[in-house]
Amino acid sequence: MPLVTTIIPAYNGASRYLGQAIQSVLAQTCHDLELIVVDDASTDETARVVLRYPQARYVRRATNGGQAAARNDGARLATGVFLAFLDQDDLWKPTFLEETIPILQRHANAAVVHCDGYQVNEAGEILEYDGAMKHTRSITQMLRGGHDVATSGSLFRKASFDAVGGYDDQLFLWEDIDLAIRLFQQYEILHHPHPLYYHRLYAHNASRDIPSERALIGRRRFMEKHSASCKPLTPEAQALNLDWAQYFGDLGKSHLKMGQIRDARLAFWRAVQYHPLNHKAILRLLRSYLPRIRTTQAPSPHSTP
Predict the structure, then answer these.
(1) Which of 200, 229, 261 is the last residue of a domain?
(2) What local confidence, expressed as pLDDT, does residue 215 receive?
(3) pTM for the whole thing?
(4) Where would I find the beta strands (DSSP E) of the chain?
(5) How far, CA to CA in Å, does 271 sit from each of 208, 218, 240, 246, 256?
(6) When comparing pLDDT for 204 and 61, which is higher?
């Protein structure tokens, strides 16, 4: 039985740095591990990439279920005492396991230890230091005590992971935050203030400032799921209201993008209800009542009537 099982969920990873992620696992100074790569029904050469490494166990899902489902599949197959999940485009420093395993071994009531990391660009160049303790008024931070338990920067005790049911594979977003909240409610979470992983960021354009429908559905499910933990008149309830205001503001922008003015107006009104001093939502609500200006091309002087 290995001490730790490392799991990489992969989807079309042939061009998404999967080989580098596998190599960073195999380069660990701790060798008492097994590596499972769960292929989430890729349509590219992901299998060929994984099969280059005989140390890796390759498992393919019949249908695409998302990262949470793929991680859960890997966890069910795992035989290690500890679990470590690495996203296919992220990397570990060679001492990631060597430094985190002893911490969990010394703290029997701890479910997870998480560390700091670096944000890097597509070329692997460091953009910024990413500290793993973030005390903000966001409900996602308050419900987990400020612990930003990044998936690729965390080591989990398998027994604790299994006890809370693993990842919620019905969440399209924030499934890692949801897991951390449920673990924080029952166990101790430990922070190791060393940068031991690299999280890759991709260039994006302005259109991504409007969340996708799938992301909006995931955010709503997440907040509905954890609203019971936010008792009225508490800081958590106030933070939840701010997050609901942000959600409805983004929902309104999404409706506007699709030309659904009435639905956008209702969403902006809900945002103002949750946060009456939300000036952006107020302005968007007012603008939704203004007549839309339609532009037409002037006829050519040579055109015939």
Answers:
(1) 200
(2) 86
(3) 0.85
(4) 4-10, 33-39, 56-60, 82-85, 91-92, 110-120, 126-130, 154-157, 188-200
(5) 20, 18, 12, 7, 15
(6) 61
